[in-house]
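Exercise 7. Given the encoded structure of a 559-residue chain, write a plausible sequence.
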């Protein structure tokens, strides 16, 4: 039998509160649940061994039965008041198992002494949200002794497991079509860089109609003491904001991966979880695996999901309709994750999937095919999101003191707005403090001799372009549209800026990254012998979603 206790834990908007008592008969432990936990752990371990993956600690012996209720928080005070009914068929997880609430809204799960329990937000319902930070409060962290002593503060001791851990939900309209905002690495080092983010990005998003936002990891740059300033700043956008853990959000003094997210957990909750909005199912993943410092080497990380997290994904998706769009959110792109093929096996039979990452401080669309171990009927679309901090706030400051922060593939810093509509998702790139129409940069000489035009190259960086984009160019208003050639090469504008850093005196600002091969460059030659005068070059592009953008560049033709 589970030992009875007198407190009930409510997952509310601000804190955990006591509320009433629970009857002894409701606390009867289901012995079968413990047996199922053993079977799941043994099965997961066998699968890990067969796949050549490490077996993670997860022996469920000594675990305790946690119980609670998911309820309709009619007055939205975060407490279960008299008359507030339990909600049936809502999913709850301990980060491995996923269970449904019964007809009275009750659930039960086995947990150890370092566990997070969370409700998987169903469509048409919303969890509590902190009014100051706009962070969703959908979880309960169970760490009776708290986090181990680390440089940055972790979770305070939570004490004994409460008799009832209750999750409040309130109704919210969620149409099939909605938008969400995606930030790649905001990655501020200090308060000053949070101010860059505030003036460069946050101000223009205030009042957005997007349903929620997501930061795809590297929320800060190792300085975990500025989480609160960051969160309060992002909260000004005015919408719920979810967060993914990145390699710069970890506790570097943790000896192993299991305690590398203690500070993140204390602020944001579980490092992996899922939720629904409208008809879309979102799975937030932690693919940053920390290998702690030893006497022989310093700590380091690599991309890995791990067998325990993959078991959660398997259990979670088993309760998601095959017809739903499933969107996976992570920090490190899939191409750099060691056990990515184990994830592929869990999603490749689904007709509608999308995954989004960040980390590289560049932007690209990847279409994962059989060459990378994917076995699905069609390639999987993996999108690497632009970063808010661009190149770590590198480059010369503008007239407002904000660095231009051009990324290593020549993309201005910014963010993405993704529209979800049933089975479809379309992505729009938005450069910080620029018009929505600013989607490319045309690189060409200011002037050129007419006789040299035919050998003069025009280079276009279509910031959110992909192998599925079409790009065309024409010279003058009467010229014909001709296709441009897609090439893998560095952005010439960034190469020029980088070359200037070698000139004395150096430009102001932190150094830019070395130019890398950009996946969204197109080239073409000017027409031969154009007439002398001032003309413009036009470029138009249509992306995989049918969205068309145009841009012009003025050029002077001399005799």
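Solution.
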């Amino acid at each position: 039998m589970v030992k009875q206790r007198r407190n009930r834990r409510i997952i509310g908007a601000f804190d955990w509160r006591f509320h009433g008592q629970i009857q002894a008969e409701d606390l009867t432990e289901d012995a079968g649940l413990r047996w199922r936990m053993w079977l799941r752990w043994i099965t997961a371990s066998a699968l890990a061994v067969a796949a050549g993956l490490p077996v993670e600690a997860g022996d469920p012996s000594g675990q305790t039965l946690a119980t609670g209720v998911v309820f309709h928080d009619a007055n939205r005070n975060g407490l279960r008041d008299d008359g507030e009914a339990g909600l049936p068929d809502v999913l709850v997880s301990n980060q491995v198992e996923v269970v449904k609430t019964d007809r009275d809204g009750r659930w039960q799960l086995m947990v150890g002494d370092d566990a997070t329990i969370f409700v998987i937000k169903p469509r048409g319902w919303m969890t509590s949200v902190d009014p100051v930070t706009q962070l969703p409060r959908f979880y309960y962290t169970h760490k009776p002794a708290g986090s181990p002593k680390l440089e940055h503060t972790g979770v305070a001791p939570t004490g004994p497991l409460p008799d009832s851990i209750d999750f409040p939900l309130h109704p919210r309209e969620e149409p099939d079509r909605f938008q969400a905002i995606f930030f790649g690495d905001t990655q501020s080092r200090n308060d000053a860089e949070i101010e860059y983010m505030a003036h460069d990005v946050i101000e223009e998003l205030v009042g957005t109609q997007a349903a929620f936002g997501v930061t795809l990891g590297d929320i800060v740059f190792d300085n975990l003491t500025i989480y609160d300033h960051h969160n309060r700043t992002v909260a000004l956008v005015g919408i719920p904001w979810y967060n993914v853990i990145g390699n710069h959000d970890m506790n570097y003094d943790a000896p192993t991966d299991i305690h590398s997210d203690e500070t993140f957990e204390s602020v944001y909750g579980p490092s992996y979880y899922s939720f629904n909005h409208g008809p879309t199912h979102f799975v937030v993943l932690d693919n940053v695996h920390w290998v702690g410092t030893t006497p022989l080497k310093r700590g380091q990380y690599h991309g890995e999901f791990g067998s325990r997290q993959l078991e959660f994904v398997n259990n979670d998706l088993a309760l998601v309709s095959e017809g739903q769009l499933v969107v996976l959110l992570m920090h490190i792109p899939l191409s750099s994750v060691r056990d990515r093929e184990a994830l592929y096996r869990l999603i490749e039979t689904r007709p509608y999937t999308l995954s989004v990452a960040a980390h590289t401080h560049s932007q690209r669309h990847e279409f994962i095919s059989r060459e990378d171990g994917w076995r699905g009927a069609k390639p999987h679309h993996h999108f690497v999101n632009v970063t808010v901090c661009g190149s770590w706030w590198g480059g010369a400051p503008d007239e407002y003191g904000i660095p231009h922060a051009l990324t290593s593939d020549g993309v201005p810093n910014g963010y993405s707005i993704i529209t979800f509509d049933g089975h479809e998702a379309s992505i729009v790139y938005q450069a910080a403090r620029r018009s929505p129409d600013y989607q490319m940069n045309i690189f060409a000489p200011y002037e050129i001799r007419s006789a040299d035009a035919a050998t003069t190259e025009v280079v276009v960086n279509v910031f959110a372009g992909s192998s599925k984009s079409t790009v065309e160019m024409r010279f003058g208003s009467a010229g014909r549209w001709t296709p441009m050639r897609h090439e893998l090469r560095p952005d010439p504008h960034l190469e020029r800026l980088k070359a200037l850093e070698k000139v004395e005196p150096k430009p102001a600002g932190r150094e830019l990254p070395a130019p890398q091969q950009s996946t969204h460059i197109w080239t073409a030659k000017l027409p031969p012998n154009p007439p002398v005068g001032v003309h413009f070059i036009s470029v138009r592009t249509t992306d995989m979603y049918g969205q068309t953008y145009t841009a012009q560049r003025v050029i002077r033709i001399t005799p």
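Remark. The domain at 8-170 is CATH 2.60.40.10 (Immunoglobulin-like). Students should compare their own answers with the one above.
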